[in-house]
């Protein structure tokens, strides 16, 4: 069976791109015929390694012009018309258009058999409407149902029951979706994100650096981290926070840093495609999110032996971290407590080392050889049912 992944932009940065490529590369290594359908291409080069055996199909290359003549004008006009198949509550809705709609629907209709894995609610919904009935549909949920607006939630309830499988990231999400989609044909299964194999990447935990990573958006709570470090810097003025990522909140975060006089302490570093190198040079990882689907960066930090201080936000951190053993969980949104736990680790090298060593062992269950094998078991099950 050929396996297709439908994703927003496989050339971009972000947790979804990393997790899709972890699985796709693993499957290609194990002899599977893999094709990634990338709706958009915004960058000339891929941010992460893509196995050369994987076919990449780009539907809308934003690096290319519309062209000239009548064809170019038609493309230009279609790109000005809003999408009618992408849900209006999709956070990336503004990037889609009638032009991308036509490209997606046309290409999906060329797939006659195999397995299609879709990677965001709008794509999950889209696939249930336009894919051939002989294709097995696996929808992925990278966020939890509780954070979606009512309109999106209603669309999910109407459409997800038409999927063959819905892959969730946590036990809590699995239960929520089972209850929500009760008595419909879809099978809800837990398949967590995975991390690639790492060799000899381990921090010595001696640098006075805290790092954080993610899109610069409200969800990630970097404003809360800045507020917490305002408390921390009075006691530990020689430590720094490095925040890796890009996003629409960069200006607001910059102003917040300046207003609090933290411009020598909290640094917006921009995006990186080598987070392992940054983790190797850090001593603490801070996750200040208001909500998560899973928390891929938590696992990556733990894999490098970097202790994590995280808000116990819905949903992922509480399932990944065992408080006091391999990381620290803080009451959701409690900035003072977050600052206190950061300082506890900043002043205690032995505790950092203990948590970091335990973390390396506890996240082995998320390595690609384990999670990749779970995907293979699912494909074998689908094959035998066919």
From TrEMBL:
<dbReference type="Pfam" id="PF00534">
    <property type="entry name" value="Glycos_transf_1"/>
</dbReference>
<protein>
    <submittedName>
        <fullName>Glycosyltransferase family 4 protein</fullName>
    </submittedName>
</protein>
<dbReference type="InterPro" id="IPR001296">
    <property type="entry name" value="Glyco_trans_1"/>
</dbReference>
<feature type="domain" description="Glycosyl transferase family 1">
    <location>
        <begin position="202"/>
        <end position="360"/>
    </location>
</feature>
